[in-house]
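Pilot study result, target chain (293 residues):
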Amino acid sequence: MRVGVHINRFDHSGGAPALGAELAAAGAAAEAAGVSWLSVMDHYFQMEFNGGAEAPMLEAYTTLAYLAGHTSTVRLGALVTGVTYRHPGLLAKIATTLDVLSGGRATLGIGAAWYDREHEGLGVPFPPLAERFERLEETLRICLRMWDPKDDGPFEGTYYRLAETLCVPAPVSAPHPEIMIGGGGEKKTLRLVARYADACNLIAASPEETRHKLDVLREHCDTEGRDYDTIRKTIAYTGEPATTGDLDAFLRDIGGYTELGIDTVILAPRLGEPAAWIESFVAPAVRRLAELD
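Predicted structure:
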């Protein structure tokens, strides 16, 4: 099981002027620790449980581009982009640019969006849930069309119409940047994973629940004619041991997931200054998990 790091707070004690150096240090620490994944949230406003809209929040893809310039091996992505945040054609272009400039290290993390306050606050339309899922599927189709070198023709959907699906330069990743769908909805989200995604991300509520979600995903794969084993499975771990630094407690927590085929456990403590935490907690966690294999 590999380890990822999810940066979700930007309330540095030194304020905004300190954020650039802190993120660069976090990237360096992550690569030194052997971390395989580095992500940031994609939100306009900070989430309520993480300080609320008045707390600092950076734009995700600008931040990922900055991290790309300060790293060389770690995979980069948003965990995850709400489908309502950007027009699909623009989103595909942004993800492609990150992939090109990072040397093929971009993942397009995407989901159906949920945070109504940030949409209302900045005047971004927030359609009903059913429509957001329909838009999500169209967006996935558009991204795959734009990444298909054999087809740059028009796209005609219910919600989006593109006269041309040009994307030049093409992604460095082959055949295209990894698509990761976040969420565990059994009827829609996991069906879309089976149909379109290269990876999924589930909240690590318990090993039993995660096993159930993966069983549902397997059923969708059977229906779609998809090889279940070709989908990379990741979990987001938000347990207290990751924040308190209790490595033994973390390893006990995560032990139940080791036989589920989880590729990466993504650690997401609510810390505004993650570089030192990566050095003190994540680096030994990488080593200890490697010993369990």
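One observation from the pilot: The mean pLDDT is 96. A full batch analysis is planned for the follow-on phase.
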